[in-house]
Write a structure and sequence with these properties.
The protein has 298 residues and is mainly alpha-helical. The chain contains 14 helices and no strands. The chain has one domain.
Length: 298
């Protein structure tokens, strides 16, 4: 990656770094389905601002609309529901680690369906090195999160499965975006996938959440606005740009930096201690990302 790509990459990592914390806050008051739908709506409204300013062309065929609908479901609606449900039953640290499997799923799918993003020994080594760095980074919290009552074990395991399934959907959506939307501006892709996902999700939510109630707490709305406007709206515009410029596998290594940002924010704003795991984990993660993004892998 060049300097501009690295700056965009790090900006997105900062936007997404606190997402799991905000999700944990949001689902304390509202159901996962309600929060996901409100996140989609706020994301759509935020993206609309960029869409109007950019004035991109609208999709001109039913086939393209169907691709956009599929992308909206597999990249946003379905994995978000899985993540929001899972975070009711598992620790956010475990969610961060399981979310870091996205690049591993991405490279498996990309190897089968893309000719320009094939699996290589060096690339796999880089991905595994970065994933190991995530585990080192949060190993203390990861161990303590498994000290739970036996009766909660089943829900915890289901939560793990839901997180892994969401990572698989993310991996598939990364490859689908590369395969079906080459040459399409990221703003257009983000806006229409969110629009179609909203059209699908709102009727489902209103038919299930009876009566439908809006959150009352300010902190919940803060979480929803962050997740919708910044993490989703602006974040997905940036991520689709990275998918087209770097390829899905290399772009998906952004998930390795998310726990680094999250832990760093805890040290800066919450006064949490700095220990060896942050330094060692960060070094391993950055090494893995560098290994994966070396020019020889392109």
């Amino acid at each position: 990656m060049n300097a501009k790509q690295w700056s965009v990459f790090i900006t997105l990592a900062c936007l997404w770094g606190s997402s799991f914390l905000w999700i944990k806050i949001a689902v304390q008051e509202s159901s996962p389905l309600t929060v996901v739908t409100l996140r989609l709506l706020t994301g759509l409204l935020a993206t609309f601002v960029f869409f109007v300013r950019g004035k991109p062309e609208t999709p001109s065929s039913l086939k393209m609309c169907s691709h956009l609908l599929i992308q909206g479901l597999i990249a946003m609606a379905i994995p978000w529901i899985l993540i929001f449900w899972a975070e009711q039953h598992i620790d956010s640290t475990v969610a961060t680690v399981l979310n870091a499997t996205v690049p591993l799923f991405t490279i498996l799918v990309a190897h089968v369906f893309l000719d320009d993003d094939r699996m290589t020994v060096r690339r796999v080594q880089g991905l595994l090195l970065g994933f190991f760095g995530v585990i080192v980074l949060v190993h203390d919290e990861l161990i303590s999160s498994f000290s739970i009552a036996r009766e909660a074990l089943c829900l915890m395991l289901l939560g793990h499965g839901a997180l892994l399934l969401s990572s698989a959907f993310y991996g598939a959506s990364n490859v689908y975006a590369r395969a079906k939307f080459r040459g399409i501006p990221p703003i257009l892709l983000t806006f229409y996938t969110m629009l179609l996902a909203n059209i699908v999700m709102w009727p489902i939510t209103l038919s299930i959440e009876i009566p439908f109630t809006l959150p009352a707490r300010t902190i919940t709305w803060t979480a929803i606005l962050w997740l919708g406007a910044l993490s989703s709206g602006l974040g997905w515009i940036i991520f689709y740009h990275l998918i087209h410029s770097l390829g899905p596998t290399r772009a998906s290594t952004i998930t390795y930096l998310i726990p680094v940002i999250g832990v760093s924010l805890g040290i800066i704003f919450l006064g949490e201690g700095l220990d060896w795991s942050l330094i060692a984990g960060t070094i391993l993660i950055l090494s893995g990302i560098w290994f994966t993004n070396r020019r020889q892998n392109c």
